[in-house]
Here is the input.
Amino acid sequence: MADVKYSVNVYVLNEDQEWNNLGTGQVSSTYDEQFQGMSLLVRSDSDGSVILRSQIPPDRPYWKHEETLIVWYEAENHGLLLNFQDPAGCEDIWKEICQVQGKDPSVQITQNISDEPEDDFDEMSVIGNTVVLPDCELDTLDQIANIVNSVLSSPIRRERLAQILKNEAYIQKLLQLFHTCENLENTEGLYRLHEIIKGILSLNKSCLFEIMFSDECIMDVVGCLEYDPALDQPKRHRDFLANDAKFKEVIPITNSELRQKIHQTYRVQYIHDILLPVPSIFEDNFLSTLTTFILSNKAEILSMLQKDHKFLYEVFAQLKDETTHDDRRCELLFFFKELCSFSQELQPQSKDALLETLTQLGMLPVLKIIMIRDDLQVRSAAAVICAYLVEYSPSRIREFIISESQVCKDSDLFINIIIKQMICDTDPELGGAVHWMVVLHSLLDPRNMLTTSEKSERSEFLHFFYKHCMHTFTAPLLAATSEHNCEEDDIVAHDKNKNCPNNNQTAQLLALILELLTFCIQHHTYYIRNYILSKDLLRKALILTNSKHTYLILCALRFMRRMISLNDEIYNNYIIKGNHFEPVVNALLDNGTRYNMLNSAILELFEYIRVENIKSLVSHIVEKFYNTLESIEYVQTFKGLKIKYEKERERQSQIQMNVYSVLQNIVVCRGTIEEMELKEEVYFMEDAEEAVMPPLEDDDEFMETKRTQEGEAVMPPLEGDDEFMETKRTQEHEDKVDSPKRTSSGDFKFSSSYSACAAIGTGSPSGSSVVRLVNHPDDEEEKEEDKEDETSPKKKPHLSS
Here is the structure.
């Protein structure tokens, strides 16, 4: 074995814990007279000089890593490493070392390291993280590929491999080897280079990206990635980037650095999107640095463009120019569209800076001019840009819209143009309408509206919208549900009619409108409620339940469901008076026994009413539709509504009985009090009479006077004595005037003097001297009813009102 030699690279560990290459040579195990034992001897391939002479002592730990590395330490921080080009050579030398130390060659470490755990652990960590690359040659490509793939699971080894690739200009050597393989048509070598380059990209190191994506290297990197072993034939990506991908300058770019950065970003983005595999859900950080590299480039491009004010002013000037050709205008708009798309991937600060610049330069007036063009591509690009601007600053867009109302007609307002673009979208799938709907949703969302002590953006903009724009937005809904278009006999026959709800494109548009109206019910409570009631919008929406498109019926149901969820009695009374549950019940019956989304949506609506126990709606549904719905027994919803209804009726009946009992007790109590007070008054009168001293029988003068008075008192008046009759009528009137009066609190108030007739209880009931101890509101109600009987009768309000 002493005469057998193997090719190796020799490395020594320096003070910075990095491996330095001492050279390449031939290693052998020989008996050394100097050490009086076996040693490892490495002679240089170039001049035969000794690179390494190392004794193999019986107690030194040797470590075998993977299949080609043998590592050991001769002193502290003095590590040596042999990197074999042939695994068989590594195995033979390892057997020689184990034989000297008396160890089994199957072990990975020749000595027990438990005596000094801390030092040995540090040693083994350095050894385990060792990365050594062979010379960059055709014969070593397999070994290089194995090393690159093996380090991906270890962050430390990845870092050390990246340092070697950077410091030794290894990537440039690999790319030179790529040209050699292409010239020799060495397919296996090209496959190995594809694997190596993809592994280097997977290291995710920005220092390597700077080298690989430089102007000198990037096309060669693309070339290596073309030779995927999984493909039958390599893809010609370099031809596409060099010949097919054209760089258009809307305005000549004089900044060479900016041009180079744009080219680099496009090519790196192409590599990321086309040539590299899509990371799985378990590889969140896969190529994250490459993504960061692309974003950094985009941020630099945007920063350079923002600083070049002359360039942006020239672009806007051509957009505003009426003489600009449509193709040219389209190119300019696509340029801004790409800028805005760049901004979405940037940090908020960079993004805000770009969109702020565009807004200040007058992008909104330009968009208003462009949106009315006939070119579909131009309008589509304008919609994308508008969406970006609204997402960036909806308040600024609202401010611009409101300011227009002072100088423009309603039809020319920016927001009404947006609505018209949505309504008039010619795409069968309404892709543009969906895009514009997102813009409207953002503008109408109160959650992103500002409120300050000086003004409320919410009230100002919503008042403006419902006054100037809402009629334009709901026009398709009102047209589709007009009497001409909504007659059942005509629905099937007019499928091709644009305003018919059965027309597929119209149905999709109506669905979008209903979705936004449903959003408005939730967030614009006061404004949308007034509009719904004034336009009877729910009735018109429920007409759409006759449509053949189930998704449109579901949109109408969601509209009503959101209205009910507010539990607003104004909405509830509106639904009851308009009998708006009838089309819902009809839709349920027409659906039959089919268990589908429509069936579930309708049942959920009734179940919500039952669970929330909305009493007015429960009563209306049971009284109006229970006989029709009681046969539906596969859910307990309608029986539950009936139970709720009956319990409420019992509760109301019990309340009425309790009120009647209380009123009856009050009447009995009042009668008892009146009797007791009357007896007390009679008793006091009798006591007063007994207290008068009777006259003496021998007092002739007194008795005579008494008889005279008694005779006058019983003497009937003469029929012709008008004066006496007049006096009597006057006294009777005074008795009435002195009778007790009812106060505002319901009690009686007595005057300072009253007639004796009233005092002894012989007067009319109205003159009773009873003092009320309890207020009786039923007395006031009886008086009010008497007054109403005297006037013309009013129409009785609805039970639910």
